[in-house]
Design a protein that fits this description.
CATH class of the largest domain: Alpha Beta
Structural class: alpha/beta
CATH topology of the largest domain: Rossmann fold
Helix content: 25-40%
Shape: globular
Number of domains: 2
Distance between the termini: 51 Å
Radius of gyration: 22 Å
Strand content: 15-25%
Oligomer: single chain
């Protein structure tokens, strides 16, 4: 069997001030055809899953471009079309193929195209015809559109948030798509619109139990896969909103009924799935009143993984002004400040302006005397077996607070982002991590407690504050009960 695979992914924030261009993809993850390393990344896991089984099954796998950009504004039109057409050209050169397996995100927008995944899948379908099996792995923070489900045979989203299961889902996708290609299964996808915009970490109840129950249903009675689509809350498109996707083996009526049943269960938890959010001062007060540490404070409103700049200074400023000792904050995206630190060198003390640069929601920059603790070229952090680059980095000290500055905008995922830059996270009373929930799996084992803070960054936790203009149906929380279950 001949299999083609490629990745084209990003998560597009309609309100982000940061452009997304070809250079954004090249700076984050750029692997031309056949050059992907042996270690997977979340949106390239299908490549590794195919490599795992290709030899034993006698498959020929043709690898096309694999690329991902850090979330920001919709992709520049010409750049999206060029990347899309490059992958389509590589597919055409590989034909005939029996199977196409893609790594996508599901919330990628471009200027002139509000459904990049649907557009790509439709063009792939026209190219390969109706008989070739097409599968794609998605992020659950996606917009699940009709164009996507109509042009793919199988779509599988990660179940976990944080997305620690990207390899498991990639293997699942490969197996189901192969069964379709070989005639051993007839996948049918059924979708239920849950009519809500939510944040739903699986690291806490009630989502933890819900995901576990969903997993128990798979592989039985013709149910091949179930995906809980949370939605991406900062894409201003009519398709926004949570959905339940069930893939059955030729049982559409059963799939529709199960998708609705589970979708309504998910909807019924809508007021409970998000963690409680504290104000900045409230969170600091709570930590200072406790013994021990480290306490982890998440800053989801300035999460680069949702398209934020990751240079908001509000929590850091509060720590400095209150004279808090034994704190660390990161990552703060400021390439210029990193260069200044490199110029002065390790051990230098000087006045530095940093943070607060990208936009109004970044807050005011910090102007302070700092000491450069450590400089690192090409700093990395780990994430469920993947290695994530942060770019050149500097660890600085401001009063009692250590700050991680980095040149490649990305969210915090693991304590080794600090330790790899000379900051010992275990020695700290308080760790501030710019992330919504991807930090949780790695930080939870060392944290005395984890608190979520709603600061004044651009990713509002109350979605009613997001300036949507294109909502075309009633959605929670804009409508208290659009499905009428209360």
């Amino acid at each position: 069997m001949r299999v083609f695979t490629a990745t084209l992914s990003t998560e597009s924030n309609s309100f982000s001030p940061i452009p997304t261009t070809r250079a954004s993809f090249e700076a984050t993850a750029w692997f031309p055809a056949g050059t992907h390393p042996d270690r997977p990344r979340p949106t390239t896991a299908q490549i590794i899953a195919l490599r795992e089984v290709a030899g034993a099954r006698g498959w020929t796998v043709i690898e096309g471009l694999a690329t991902h950009a850090e979330p920001a504004a919709p992709v520049r039109q010409a750049d999206y079309e060029a990347l899309r057409d490059q992958i389509l050209g590589e597919l055409e050169a590989a034909m005939p193929v029996d199977m196409v397996v893609l790594g996508l995100h599901g919330a990628m927008l471009a200027v002139g195209c509000e459904d990049c995944e649907g557009d790509l899948l439709a063009r792939v379908r026209r190219l390969v015809g109706p008989d070739v099996a097409i599968g794609a792995e998605l992020d659950p923070h996606c917009h699940l559109t009709d164009a996507m489900t109509e042009n793919a045979d199988v779509l599988v989203a990660y179940k976990e948030y944080p997305h620690t299961d990207f390899m498991e889902r990639a293997r699942e996708l490969v197996e189901i798509t192969a069964a379709a290609a070989e005639g051993r299964a007839r996948p049918v996808m059924s979708v239920f619109d849950c009519r809500m915009i939510v944040t739903a970490p699986t690291s806490r109840e009630p989502m933890r139990g819900f995901v576990d129950r969903v997993k128990e249903l798979e592989g039985k009675d013709g149910v091949l896969s179930i995906s809980i689509v949370h939605c991406f809350p900062f894409g201003d498109v009519p398709s926004i909103g949570a959905r339940l996707l069930v893939v059955t083996d030729g049982q559409p009526e059963k799939g529709r009924a199960l998708a609705e049943q589970l979708g309504r269960e998910f909807y019924a938890m809508r007021r409970e799935v998000a963690p409680p959010y504290l104000g900045v001062e409230e969170a600091i007060d709570h930590v200072l009143a406790q013994e021990g540490g480290p306490f982890v404070l998440a800053d989801p409103a300035d999460n680069a993984g949702g398209g934020a700049p990751s240079d908001n200074t509000s929590i850091l400023r509060a720590l400095i002004e209150r004279g808090v000792e034994g704190a660390a904050v990161g990552p703060i995206w400021d390439p210029q400040a990193v260069r200044f630190c490199e110029g002065f060198g390790e051990g230098a003390t000087f006045r530095l302006r940093f943070g607060g640069k990208a936009g109004l929601a970044s807050g005011q920059p910090i102007d302070a005397e700092v000491t450069v603790l450590k400089l690192v070229k090409n700093l990395t952090q780990s994430f469920s077996g993947a290695i994530i680059p942060l770019g050149d980095a500097a660890a600085i000290r401001v009063g009692g607070v250590d700050v991680l500055l980095n040149a490649n905008r990305t969210q915090g995922r693991a304590p080794d982002m600090f330790s790899n830059c000379g900051i010992d996270p275990l020695s700290k009373k308080l760790l501030v991590v710019k992330s919504t929930n991807h930090f949780h799996a790695a930080f939870a084992p060392i944290a005395k407690d984890i608190l979520y803070v709603d600061a004044d960054g651009p990713l509002a936790r109350d979605y009613r504050r997001v300036p949507f203009t294109r909502l075309e149906r009633d959605l929670y929380p804009f409508h208290p009960d659009p499905l009428g279950l209360d």
